[in-house]
Amino acid sequence: MLNKAGSSFIVNRFEEHNEELIAVRQDSLLKRLLRIHLGPPEATDDQSSQIPGSRLVPALFTAYRDLNALRYDFPVMLLETDVERMAVPLSHLIDELIRVQTPTAAEDEYYRRDLYQLEAAIKALVNEGRQQRLSTLWDVAAKRCLAAATDAARREVLRSNLGSARRALRDDGLVTECDGQIARRLFAHAWQLIESEQGQHARETLDDLSAELTVIIDADRMRSARATSADALRTAMGGEHAGGIDFERLSSVVRSNQHQSPLTTSRRKRLRGVLKILEAERRRIDPGGGNGKSSRRGQRVLTTADSCVEAFELLDAELQRMVELFRAVRIAQLEVENRYDEARHNAFFAAFDQEQLTPEELSGLPPLFVYLDGEALDAENKATLVEILSSELPIKLLLELHNTPDAVPATIGLAAFGGWGTSLGSMATVLPTAFVMQAPASHLPRLASEVMAGLRYQGPALYCIYTGPVAEAESMPRYLHCASAAESRAFPCFVQHPGRGTDWAQRFTLSDNPQPELAWPIHHLSYEDGDGRAMIDDIAFTVADFLAMDPRFAGQYAPVAPEAWHPNMVPLGDYLALDPIDTFNKVPYLWMINGNDTLQRVIVRRGLVAAARHCAKLWRSLQELAGIDNSHALRALEVERERLEAEKQGAVEQVTTTEHTDGSGVAPAAAPQAILGSAEPVSEDAGAHEVATAPGPEQAYIETELCTSCNDCTDRNSMMFGYDELKQAYIKDVRAGTFRELVEAAENCPVCIIHPGKPLNPDEPDLAELMQRAAAFN
Amino acid sequence: MFDPIKTLSPSVPDIDDDAYSMDDFEGVNARWCHACGNNAILTAVQKLCAEEQLAPEKTVFVSGIGCSSRLPHYMGTYGFHALHGRALPIAEGIKIRRPDLHVFVNTGDGDCCSIGAGHWIHAMRYNMNMTVLLHDNQIYGLTKKQISPTSPRGLVSSTSPRGAYLEPLNPLAATLGMSNISFVANAVDWLPSVLYEIIHQAFHHRGLSFVRIVQRCPRYLPHQFDEYMKDPERILLLTHAQGLHVQDAVARRFKHCMEHDPSDLDRARELATNQERLPVGILYRNPGVLCYEDVRTSVEHLTAADKVKALEREFDKFTVQPTS
Ligand SMILES: Cc1ncc(C[n+]2csc(CCOP(=O)(O)OP(=O)(O)O)c2C)c(N)n1
Ligand code: SF4
Ligand SMILES: [Mg+2]
After folding, report:
1. Which of A363, A606, A658, B171 has the smallest number of CB atoms closer than 10 Å to its CB?
2. What is d(CA A193, CA A443) in angstroms, rounded to the nearest whole number?
3. Chain A within 8 Å of B7 (Cβ-Cβ)?
4. Testing the interface with B: which of A220, A259, A352, A708 to mutate, by most B Cβ within 10 A?
């Protein structure tokens, strides 16, 4: 039902634009174009030579049509030896080899070219579908290059160049393309690396604790009657000394020399029990056992789950085991430090449960990695997923998003591009304990360190990875498809790491997106116009450019022949920046090229424009989180600016009024604060205070803070002189000794800080002489 | 600071655990002579241990031979009373294997500047994180008044009945001339608060901190330092924001109190050789010098079995095979 206010809104809407509206009504070409834009997806511009749905490509893609000729982040090598460089693009590796190998300047150019040739050959092998280690691929590719060389002399140079580069190659690992499995492969690889790192750390802690517990137990055993018996000593020393040593004597010497008492039975039992648990865990981490260097790389078994529900169940079982283990670890730590106090700790450890585990300890939980298919999650798993992300459990979720055709209805579903998964990433950013990373698969190599950061993080982690359609498409390589998802803001990259701080500025970053400060990235487009002149335009790459490659949305685009171009046609990027009210007479278009490399304007229909606006809104809210043109900050800035202006204005006004009043009207200045604080004059000599509190010449005292703890006075009479808690002397009891003792102590004090004062007992002999000697110290 | 290992739960401070007091750092009763300056040094390090709450089992005092070198016996921590002149290499061995321990070295003027002088130079260069206290009484006390390298010219002793012939060695100037040094200070035993503050700063310096302490031996050189003790004019107190801080009440006792920037090595050398006044304070400090243990310590954790194996390997080198 339309109420009055509503209808009046509609009526008034274009009032201000009346003239423009009339202009549109009189312009039949513009009307035709607007109809295409506003019409349903099927409507076509019948004057156009192009049929909608034919393969038009967004103009900005022209440079990327032949990916084989480009050097980018794929193929990538998964390095097994270096956690910090777990995924190295082949192109980087080749560049590195060129950089470190510096043959003479003349050979330099050949060397570079030869390595690029090899790189191309390796890429071709990977494209053929080979999943092999670099060393294998290298050798096959080198053979191919050599076979292709026609000139014998050149072949020799090539052989030597490739040979020396091969010798300089330090790294090896599986080389992989950006295919449908890349996310899983890369995460499994990262997880393995992290695990061996964490496993090793756990192993080292356990090694140390077991070693130290063993020392305590062994030392106890060495003190036992059995170990100190003559027989045991004889066996220990070996046969050679049998004649020369009296082992009975030795035994009694050893026994008489023992200062410490043996362990109590309860402690011995506790130590043994704990050691058993620690040893079992050591064997579990490293079934090889032994102390050799190679076996020290602890490696726990990778546990994966296919659903959030299963993950929870698995984790619960592990938790029980962890409680047992960490109870043992904590007891061991207390025992090693000799701090286990049965009165306090027995009760605590008897009630030890899951609640007691710290986040650090929880992070010692064995690997739990969950692979999830974004389009195949049921409601229960969706709910559990949110539960996991709100917890502090170290569960790592890899959510792969494909956006398969049947998951997104072709028309209305546009607004929800990427489906549930895209919004999930953004929604999860508000959960304070969740690590969230969103990125397309193409960006994984460059985000490798962030992948690691999430795995190392102690709480839950969610990785929303857009991997493109499940089936390989012929129209566009997966890498390009994924990369343009990020480029077009359809699937922005971001990382939220709760471990980096408590505010958004520390924990959230959008920096891996192109031109993150803009609504859409802007690129130069160079082309020749109809008269053969070179032109350059700046154009935005929008979500509509990205979706143009998806046949599902073909109906949303309508090419327009150059004869029908109209001045009111506006590039989509500019169109989206306008206030919607101002767009009623504009027709948004994209630049695309056809098979003949001819630029074409393609009208974008209303439905897709709405999708683009939705996408822009999501992006804008991410920008706010990342502090880009943050609205709160801008508002605060505005308020502050107004305040300053008002202040300035006030000051100006005051100056003007003061000029008009005479001095008599001005209030007297307030009295200085200090005078209110103290009624007494402040003494110049701060030392006066010390003198005042020192006892007078009548009384005996020591300047305690100057005492050097030399023991002289305290050894003379420990009743009279004592040490305070800082081991500095004071007069403990002046009546506990004679005046003579006081005077002698004063005379012998190396730093002369004992002041004997006056004698208390008038009957003490030789007082006159003693008082004379004391005078020197009073 | 709270140490999670000591607590019931690593994330909750253990409020029931008693703090260490000075008594916890008492070893056996000190048996130095009455009024010996070593007592002041002992008190200062015990106070440091208590204030810093150093776990006694994580703290080691290493010494050579001499009266001063008896100090580890009087501490309630671990100790190593080593061979004459060998305190520094022993301490280095401890530190390289157990960088988690707090290592202190107590050495005498004979121990360090005479028989141990070779070790002294290299220990300074290694710059391992430890606090070295040179108890300089300018005499061999333990061997009953034998002359030491720091004894003044003309000193009559049991080994120099006609008086010492040579000019003494200046341990401060010598150290300030060595390579790779990172902390050099001078203290006197009879100013307890200043002594404490210097040792405190030395402890917090990361690297080898060398503190020469002028120490009285009332038994054999009873009036040796009277000129400085009785006359504060002869002392030059060095203070600085980055160096020694003293309370105003203390500073007021000294007529000669100056700001000295401890990063200025040239000035430090000048002050160390000043004949007129004894500088007291931090002469030189450079926190940027690398510690040897940081580059050389192996991260390998050894289990008991590993240690036995390593020891066996070493012992095997010395096995004398019995001849039949
Ligand atoms: C290898 C060796 N040489 C000589 C001695 C004899 N000795 C014992 S203490 C000492 C000198 C100690 O002087 P100092 O280091 O200044 O210590 P102080 O007693 O003065 O504190 C000497 C030479 C010894 N114990 N070992
Ligand atoms: S001989 Fe000298 S240094 Fe040794 S304990 Fe006695 S006073 Fe101290
Ligand atoms: Mg000495």
Report:
1. A658
2. 20
3. no
4. A708
Do A508 and A215 meet the contact criterion of CB atoms below 8 Å apart?
no
For residues A195 and A343, membership in a common domain is answered with: yes
Q: Is the CB of residue B126 less than 8 Å from the CB of residue B92?
A: yes
Angle at the Cα of A256 from the Cα atoms of A250 and A261, rounded to 5 degrees:
125
**Using one digit for the tens of pLDDT, what is the confidence trace for A44-81?**
444 444 444 456 788 887 777 677 777 888 999 999 88
In a domain, A348, yes or no: yes
Whether A247 maps to a domain, the answer reads no
| Count of CA atoms in the C-beta half-sphere (13 A) of A284 | 14
Helices (H), strands (E): how many in chain A? 28, 21
Mean pLDDT of chain A: 81
Q: How far is CA A275 from CA A269, A284, A285, A653, B302, in A?
A: 10, 14, 15, 82, 17
In-domain check, residue B312: no
Contact A708 B189 (CB under 8 A): yes
Distance B151 CA to ligand 3 centre (A): 9
Could you tell me if A452 and A495 lie in one domain? yes
The amino acid sitting at A272 is R
Domain span at residue B192 reads: 4-299
Domain that residue A606 falls in: 4-64+518-631
The whole-angstrom distance between A313's CA and the closest CA on chain B is 26
Residue A244 included in any domain: no
Alpha helices in A337-447 (DSSP H): 342-350, 359-362, 379-390, 419-428
Q: How many CB pairs under 8 A join A and B?
A: 100
Q: Are A173 and A80 in contact (CB under 8 A)?
A: yes
Please report how the helices A606-625 and A28-38 are oriented relative to each other, as an axis angle in degrees rounded to 10: 70
Give the residue-averaged pLDDT of A112-129.
92
Q: For residues A340 and A388, state if they share a domain.
A: no
Whether residue B292 lies inside any domain: the answer is yes
A482 and A533 inside one domain: no
Residue A35's nearest CA partner among A758, A628, A606 is A606
Burial class from Cβ neighbours inside 10 Å (0-12, 13-18, 19+) for residue B24 reads middle
d(CA A708, CA A700): 19
A741 within domain boundaries: yes
H or E stretch covering B213: strand B208-214
Interface test with B, best of A200, A291, A709 (most B CBs within 10 A): A709
Task: Give the model confidence (pLDDT) of A433-473 as tens digits.
Answer: 899 999 999 999 999 999 999 988 888 999 999 988 877 76
The whole-number pLDDT of residue A602 equals 93
- The answer, yes or no, to whether ipTM is higher than 0.85 is no
CA distances for A555 relative to A36, A41, A201, A402, A410, angstroms: 11, 5, 57, 21, 9
Q: Are residues A753 and A714 in the same domain?
A: yes
The count of domains in chain A is 6
- Residue A769: give its domain's CATH number: 3.30.70.20
- For residue B122, being part of any structural domain is answered with yes
Q: Which residues surround ligand 3, an ion (CB under 5 A)?
A: B 108-109, 137
Q: How many CA atoms lie within 13 A of A654 on its CB side?
A: 7
At residue A257, does pLDDT exceed 70?
no
In B, minimum Cα distance to A714 occurs at B34
Q: Considering the domain boundaries, does residue B23 fall inside one?
A: yes
Check if the beta carbon of residue A756 is closer than 8 Å to that of residue A764.
no
B37–A708 CB contact, under 8 Å: yes
Q: Is B161's Cβ below 8 Å from some Cβ in A?
A: no
A169 shares a domain with A191: no
**pLDDT digit string, tens, across residues A478-502:** 898 888 888 988 889 999 999 898 8
Of A641, A562, A566, A619, the residue nearest A594 (C-alpha): A562
Model pLDDT for residues A316-370, shown as the tens digit of each residue = 888 888 899 999 999 998 998 888 989 889 999 999 988 888 877 776 666 578 8
B36 lines ligand 2 (CB under 6 A): yes
